[in-house]
Specification:
heterodimer, A: about 425 residues, Rossmann fold, Cytochrome Bc1 Complex, Chain D, domain 2, six-stranded parallel beta sheet, six-stranded mixed beta sheet, 16 helices, about 15% strand, B: about 375 residues, ABC transporter involved in vitamin B12 uptake, BtuC, about 0% strand
């Protein structure tokens, strides 16, 4: 018996040693090779990683690519982002998808390093942070300047569109004419975009509706994992007469979904189709306000394949998940109305995000969408022309962001210099940085 | 038994003990690879292909070799930290936290102070080691003074370290990079970065040299100095050590300080050598994996280096394995778990290979201090 064991072990060891010098693995032929680098998380996360992977699979199917043409690496350590991207590139991959906003800087860095490789970063706003000393301010202010790289696409979403459609559905479904939204922190712009869209959409279909909204008061690290708060807040709103709950905010939101469902009211999920991720609420979830990562990723890969890829911020489809168990229960005219609104948004006939909202309007301003930013020419004529002519701006356009930031700071610090807001600085920097 | 056979057995065991330990470790690795291979085969993969991919990922080309070395480095630091603790009879689970504290201290020293290049890096490394040492001294002192078990207290200090650091890099946290939307810290100055021997990513930073020095230092400390003798004596039998006039309490605290300094130095090397800043998901789990590394290496510095290399190879190679052969990286985690199981419970494999039991007393037992008066 023991001898057999020993023999087995020795044979295996021998086999191992022999194979170490074996022949190179066969290389394959693919028109594009697609690699997914996950953030620090697993592939089957029912969230960003999994959706990106499904998008890749969909694109591969459409392009007729074999399984050897796409693959993934699960990142284990933040320090490995670039090495993992390079591992794909060394293996001949030419389309790299990186998952989630944490990988923004690594992806942009790799994009500059490998201009011949296409990069698709999900949820990655293509901006550069510039620290500006505004006149009279105690500390420097961070200004995010849109800074596209030709071979890097940041797949982002206008959450207000999905929120608007969710609101349009909730506004029609409510019987008490009171609906509620339970959200993560408003510090993270996508959250108020969902919230404002929801309110706008509900009021659009039902001007009399009352929309209650509560944002988690904590910082981002707690605001999305506080199921207790989400649950209690939802209950409070139900007690105040709300009969539809929209919950947007990670685990916090899930708490709201479960509370609403337990009380027997319809609920609306967020980001992905939560029918599958929060299975406890399958009987009450009427839809989810989704960021369609799957189709967003797929479309960008297809754009690479037919040579129409453009870098910078690319807005993926945001909309509603299927109604699932409620398919029969939602009246056809309600569905028709939602469809009609969807078409009007796509045609640009409805503005889903109120830029002039006193509190959250700034969240509507998204780089690459251009919505709501003051006009560059207007800012220039308002401020610059007081001291110098436009020609002086044009001759220095190529000086770069650093030079312009310093120059603006110098001008602002002078007596009688322009009193620019952070948005003005952003517009000017964006104008000269094109 | 006659004295003659006793004497010869003693000589044999002294000579054979080292090789037997090595043998157990190697057997554990082989057995784990065999079982891992069986699991790959059962799940429809080709084990030979999988291991081939693992090997190529770790040694296939220059960049891969660099990554393997760079991944091995922190395992050695942390493994040495655990090993020193074990030698002193202390199960320092707090290496994870001490590593983080070392990272953060080195980071602060790296951006808040201005010094000439070289000196700055050395200063930041020193601060990292100091941070880890101080953080480890707390459970050491609690153990020496009150008898509070270090397993419990170091788990607690881990939580405290992780929470405080997470807070400090969260929105408006004191270490947060101003204006960043990500949970990341300010960058250390270039003068504090460890110079690199290559221009690859990751860079082959000189932390690799430092860790080799650390291996020999720990060997020298444990077996060539009076303090090392005291540490080992307290580890084997605190009561006898006390009887022999060794200040047991002082030795316990010093053991933790040395252990923590090694962990802190490891964390400092990671920050100064790799990223140049700290963010979430950096270094996570190193401190826990290194417990397996230390046990695989029989708590001997050279053994730790070898065990760390194995873990470094697996960590660096598994991505290529997954990429080329579709064998999921989880198989590596399973193999690492199996290795730990076999090394920690040699009884499992001894009967399989008719190995004689490792001599009592020579074996460093992790349970030596449970319930002991320490």
């Amino acid at each position: 018996m023991n001898r057999v064991h020993r023999l087995f072990a020795c044979t295996l060891l021998l086999a191992l040693v022999l194979t170490l010098g074996g022949p190179a693995l066969a290389q394959d032929e693919c028109t594009v090779k697609i690699g997914l680098v996950t953030d620090v998380g697993r592939l089957n996360d029912q969230s960003f990683n999994e959706s990106a992977w499904k998008g890749i699979q969909a694109a591969a199917e459409q392009l007729g690519l074999g399984e050897e043409c796409y693959n993934y690496i699960e990142t284990q350590d933040t320090a490995d982002y670039i090495p993992n991207i390079e591992l794909f590139i060394d293996e001949g991959y030419n389309v790299i998808i990186t998952s989630g906003y944490l990988m923004t800087s690594a992806t942009r860095e790799a994009g500059l390093l490998y201009p011949d490789v296409y990069f698709i970063g999900t949820d990655q706003d293509q901006t550069t942070t510039v620290m500006v000393q505004l006149a009279g301010a105690a500390e420097e202010t961070a200004v995010f300047v849109y800074d596209p790289i030709p071979n890097v696409a940041g797949l982002v979403f206008d959450e207000s569109v999905a929120g608007f459609l969710a609101g349009a559905l909730a506004g029609q479904m409510t019987e008490s004419n009171v609906i509620a939204g339970v959200y993560g922190t408003d510090i993270v712009p996508p959250v108020p975009r969902f919230g404002m869209g929801y309110e706008q959409g509900a009021k659009y279909v039902n001007p009399d509706v009352e929309v209650k909204a509560a944002y988690h008061p904590g910082t981002p690290d707690v605001a999305f994992v506080d199921a207790q708060w989400g649950s209690e807040t939802a209950q409070t709103m139900l007690n105040e007469g709300a009969d539809v709950i929209f919950a947007a905010g990670g685990t916090t939101g899930n708490g709201g979904l479960i509370a609403g469902c337990t009380a027997g009211y319809p609920v609306i999920g967020v980001d992905f189709d939560q029918y599958y991720t929060v299975t406890e609420v399958q009987s009450c979830i009427i839809t989810s306000a989704t960021k369609d990562l799957v189709n967003g990723v797929r479309d960008l890969i297809l754009a690479v394949a037919d040579d129409t890829f453009v870098g910078g911020n690319v807005f993926g489809p945001a909309g509603l998940a299927p109604f699932h168990d409620w398919e029969e229960k939602i009246p056809d005219e309600v569905k028709a109305k939602v469809e009609e609104i969807k078409g009007m948004i796509a045609a640009g006939e409805i503005e889903t995000c109120p830029v002039d909202d006193e509190k959250y309007g700034a969240a509507c301003i998204m780089s690459g969408l251009g919505r709501g930013l003051p006009d560059a020419a207007m800012v220039m004529s308002d401020y610059c022309s007081a001291c110098h002519d436009a020609e002086r701006i044009e001759t220095n356009v190529a000086q770069g962001l650093d030079w312009w930031t310093t120059t603006l700071e110098t001008m602002m610090s002078q007596d009688g210099g322009p009193e620019l807001t952070a948005d003005d600085v952003k517009v000017i920097l964006q104008y000269v940085h094109q | 038994m006659t004295t003659e056979t006793d004497a010869s057995r003693g000589a044999e065991s002294k000579l054979g003990l080292f090789s037997r330990r090595v043998f157990i470790s190697i057997l554990s690795i082989v057995l784990s690879l065999v079982i891992g291979g069986a699991i790959i085969a059962l799940s429809g993969g080709d084990p030979i292909d999988g291991y081939l991919g693992l090997w190529r990922g770790a040694f296939g080309k220059e960049k891969a070799v660099v990554e393997t070395i760079v991944k091995t480095t922190p395992f050695i630091f942390a493994g040495l930290a655990v090993a020193v603790g074990f030698r002193g009879g202390l199960f320092n689970i707090g290496v994870e936290g001490q590593l983080f504290v070392g990272s953060i201290c080195a980071l602060i020293a790296g951006y808040a102070v201005e010094l000439p290049p070289g000196i700055h890096a050395a200063f930041a490394l020193l601060m990292g080691a100091l941070g880890g040492a101080v953080w480890a001294a707390i459970p050491g002192y609690l153990k020496a003074r009150t008898g509070a078990h270090e397993v419990i207290t170091t788990i607690m200090t881990n939580y405290i370290a992780l929470r405080v650091i997470n807070w400090s890099i969260s929105q408006n946290g004191p270490l947060r990079l101003p204006g960043s939307a990500l949970p990341e810290t300010r960058r250390v100055l270039d003068s504090a970065r460890l110079p690199s021997l290559t221009d690859t990513t990751p860079p082959l930073h000189i932390g690799v040299v430092i860790v080799i020095v650390a291996v020999f230092f720990v060997y020298w400390l444990l077996w060539r100095t009076p303090l090392g003798f005291e540490i080992r004596t307290v580890g084997l039998n605190p009561s006898a050590a006390r009887y022999a006039g060794i200040k047991v309490e002082r030795t316990i605290v010093l053991t933790m300080v040395i252990s923590g300094a090694l962990a802190g130095l490891g964390g400092a090397v990671q920050v100064l050598g790799l990223l140049g800043y700290f963010t979430t998901g950096f270094n996570v789990g190193l401190g826990f994996d290194s417990i397996a590394v230390a046990m695989l290496g029989s708590n001997h510095p050279f053994g730790v280096a070898a065990g760390a290399l194995l873990f470094g190879v697996m960590d660096a190679g598994m991505k290529t394995m997954q990429l080329r052969t579709q064998v999921p990286r989880d198989i590596v985690v399973i193999i690492q778990g199996l290795i730990l199981l076999f090394v920690a419970a040699p009884l499992l494999i001894q009967p399989l290979f008719r190995l004689r039991q490792v001599g009592e007393g020579e074996q460093v037992s992790i349970s030596a201090t449970w319930g002991g008066e320490g």
